[in-house]
Design brief:
The protein has 115 residues and is mainly beta. Helix content is 10%, strand content 43%. The protein is built from two helices and nine strands, in the order ββαββββββαβ. Strands 3-9-1-2-8-6-7-5-4 form a nine-stranded antiparallel sheet. The longest helix has 7 residues. It is globular and about 35 Å long. The N and C termini lie close together (11 Å). 30% of the residues are buried.
């Protein structure tokens, strides 16, 4: 699924995966969220509600640029560094094509359905 993502007012290319959690996330769009740093690896923000994680794909370690959902906390994570390990509670929703510095410095993200 194609989406439009804007980081701090500047557009970046992005896609959502084709899995149930990503489709549920797409149902929340459009979203504008303030990001904060977490463990010098990702930028995170709370979503307005938890996502349906039934039928989730096998867990995978997050890579830089991945847009992910951490189920226990119900938050969105934008990784600017590779995640430390595979975590069954972390679902990769999609990917943002931007360099690590831009991702690491992002304070606000807007995500919309592509038209």
């Amino acid at each position: 699924m194609d989406i439009r993502v804007t980081l701090d007012g500047r557009p970046v290319d992005a896609t959502l995966n084709d899995n149930p959690a990503a489709r549920d996330f797409a149902g929340l769009l459009p979203l504008t969220l303030d990001l904060e740093d977490f463990h010098q690896t990702e930028r995170v923000a709370d979503l307005p509600r938890k996502l349906d994680t039934s039928g989730a794909p096998e867990p995978a370690a997050a890579q830089a640029g991945d847009l992910a959902y951490y189920a226990p906390w119900g938050n969105l994570a934008l990784f600017y560094r590779d995640g430390p390990s595979t975590d069954a509670d972390l679902l990769v929703l999609g990917h943002i094509d931007a360099d690590a510095d831009r991702l690491a410095g992002a304070d606000r993200i807007t995500i919309e359905a592509a038209s």
